Amino acid sequence: SDARATNDALQTDIDSGSGWRPDQEAERRTLVTAVEKGRNELETAQSQLDALRSQMLSMEDSVRHAEGSRDEAFAVLKATSDKIDTLNKEKEISQQRKNRMESDLEDVKKTKKECEDRLSEKNSALQQEQERLSVSERRLKEAKMTMESLSRKNDITLRE
Fold first, then answer.
1. Mapping DSSP to helix (H, G, I), strand (E, B) and coil, where does residue 142 land?
2. Do the Cβ atoms of 20 and 28 come closer than 8 Å?
3. Are 54 and 62 in contact (CB under 8 A)?
4. Sorting pLDDT into bands at 50, 70 and 90, what band is 19?
5. Cβ-based neighbours of 20, under 8 Å, separated by 6 or more
6. How far is CA 91 from CA 70, 78, 80, in A?
7. What are phi and psi of 17, to 5 degrees?
8. How far apart are CA 103 and CA 122, in angstroms?
């Protein structure tokens, strides 16, 4: 009976001929659909991967550009910082020079004041001496006139 069942099954296979049986055809369609779905998913994943690679390359370019800009900005910042330091040193030197000049000016003003005070004293003393000289000259003139007068009187008296 087993042999008969096997024989009948084989006869059915022979009668149906070569090709897919309906249950095998359904399974094959399921597998083909699954494979096509897998291929579509793979293509989608590959497209997404390609897009991500492109995006990554673009981002790497952006990073390199940003790093270059950063390096340029650091160079400009360093140059600016150095220039500020130089200007601050020059300012400090100028301030010291200004302070020395102001101190020297104060010394000159003090010396000028002292000279003006001494000049004023000397002028005052000169004025007093000129007044005394004027008085002496006046007295001398008076004495000379008195002597001349006396000398004339003496000459007149001697002649007589």
1. helix
2. yes
3. no
4. low
5. 28
6. 31, 20, 16
7. 85, -175
8. 28
Helix intervals (H) in 17-160: 22-159
* CB burial string 18-54: b at 16+ within 10 A, e below: eeeeeeeeeeeeeeeeeeeeeeeeeeeeeeeeeeeee
pLDDT in tens, 43-70: 999 999 999 999 999 999 999 999 999 9
Give the residue carrying structure tokens 């008969």.
4
Tokens 């000028």 -> residue = 112
Structure tokens at 110: 């003090």
Q: Looking at the predicted structure, is the pLDDT value of residue 156 above 70?
A: yes
The token pair that represents 104 in the structure block: 């020297």
Compute the distance between CA of residue 73 and CA of residue 66 in angstroms, rounded to an integer.
10
For the chain, give the number of residues.
Answer: 160
